[in-house]
């Protein structure tokens, strides 16, 4: 009798969960924004600049030093071949620099990444002869009608010496123009941001975009909560996937919470407050306990010592998420 009762209760729970998921899917609005991909260097660079503006608004000197390093890394990236490896290095550096500029975890910025080297100098050397040669030829063609006019009076005026000297006199201005351009392209870029400019620039937040990102974050939490009701207790693979998704959401939470804290009271009335991850973390932790109990009661599970290590790794990742989102 207990067996059929437990099975009936389990079936009822699954059906109720499926109905809840259907209602949740129908109620989610289309107005949402997922977190930026790891390789979206433009978004990551923008997030880092905003983080520096907020975290060091009372320490303009430190903010200026970090902005200078950011400019140097950005200019080095622009002068690199911008390969996939270079993009991954830049994205990792921007994300790590943002984390190290968070209130409560401020550390020295990581060492600037070493991008691939490009060779712009040979290209400029190859282009200079073309510029120097093409300019005299075009000017000689422009001078041909003037050279033909003396034929009506005196043929003696058509001497080769003035014609050959004229292009030489015109080469000098072209060289003077090309050389400074090449020197400017090869010169070390100077930071374009100064402390005075940073202090005068007002901080503006797009409330529409922030509200969309918060909505996407809340939807991600709801999906994890719903999935935790469906998966089997001993399904370690499913638990691992949910923890991975939660780690990605924790990065979104840290950014949007920081943006939300800078809003005025009037602005906060137009944007929903980011929900805490504590409830979802507690659900996953209970699922880990149930999975460990289920495998411990299994006859074959008693001989598999690797389960203890897996559960320990899962708990460590949950602890890291909890510490990062406090």
Main attributes of the structure:
326 residues; mainly alpha; 3 domains; 12 helices; globular; disordered N terminus
Write a brief caption for the model.
With 326 residues, the chain is mostly helical.
Detailed description of the structure:
There is one protein chain. The protein has 326 residues and is mainly α. It folds into three domains: 76 residues; 67 residues, no CATH class; 121 residues. It has twelve helices and no strands. The protein starts with a helix and ends with a helix. The N terminus is likely disordered.
In total, how many beta strands? Answer: 0
What's the overall geometry?
A: globular
Beta content: under 5%
Q: Span between N and C termini?
A: 47 Å
Number of helices: 12
* Averaged pLDDT: 72
Domain count, please report it. 3
String of helices and strands: HHHHHHHHHHHH
- What is the CA-based Rg, rounded? 33 Å
The chain-level structural class is mainly alpha
Biggest sheet descriptor: none
Low-confidence stretches: 1-6, 15-39, 123-134, 150-169
Oligomer: single chain
Percentage of helical residues?
over 70%
Task: Show the helix and strand layout.
Elements: H1 2-27, H2 41-55, H3 60-79, H4 84-99, H5 120-148, H6 160-186, H7 195-200, H8 207-228, H9 236-261, H10 265-268, H11 278-296, H12 306-324
Helix pairs in contact: 2-4, 3-4, 5-6, 8-9, 8-11, 9-11, 9-12, 11-12
């Amino acid at each position: 009798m207990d067996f059929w009762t437990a099975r009936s209760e389990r079936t009822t729970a699954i059906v109720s969960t499926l109905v809840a998921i259907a209602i949740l899917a129908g109620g989610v609005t289309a107005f949402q924004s997922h977190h930026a991909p790891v390789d979206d260097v433009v978004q990551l660079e923008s997030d880092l600049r905003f983080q520096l503006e907020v975290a060091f608004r009372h320490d303009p000197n430190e903010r200026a030093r970090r902005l200078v390093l950011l400019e140097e890394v950005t200019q080095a990236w622009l002068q690199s071949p911008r390969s996939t490896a270079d993009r991954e290095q830049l994205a990792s550096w921007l994300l790590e620099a943002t984390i190290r500029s968070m209130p409560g975890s401020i550390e020295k910025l990581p060492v600037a990444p070493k991008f691939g080297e490009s060779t712009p100098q040979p290209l400029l050397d190859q282009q200079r002869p073309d510029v120097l040669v093409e300019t005299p030829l075009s000017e000689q063609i422009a001078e041909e009608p003037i050279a033909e006019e003396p034929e009506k009076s005196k043929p003696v005026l058509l001497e080769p010496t003035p014609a050959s000297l004229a292009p030489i006199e015109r080469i000098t201005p072209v060289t003077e123009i090309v050389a400074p351009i090449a020197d400017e392209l090869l010169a070390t870029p100077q930071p374009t941001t100064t402390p005075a400019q940073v202090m005068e620039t007002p901080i503006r937040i797009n409330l529409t975009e922030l509200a969309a990102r918060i909505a996407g974050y809340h939807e991600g939490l709801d999906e994890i909560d719903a999935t935790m009701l469906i998966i089997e207790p001993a399904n370690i693979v499913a638990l691992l996937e949910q923890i991975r998704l939660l780690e990605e959401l924790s990065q979104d939470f840290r950014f949007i919470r920081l943006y939300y804290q800078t809003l005025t009271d009037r602005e906060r009335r137009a944007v929903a407050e980011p929900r805490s991850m504590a409830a979802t973390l507690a659900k996953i932790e209970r699922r880990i306990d149930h999975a460990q109990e289920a495998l411990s009661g299994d006859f074959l599970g008693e001989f598999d010592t690797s389960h203890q290590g897996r559960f320990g790794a899962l708990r460590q990742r949950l602890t890291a998420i909890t510490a990062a989102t406090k």
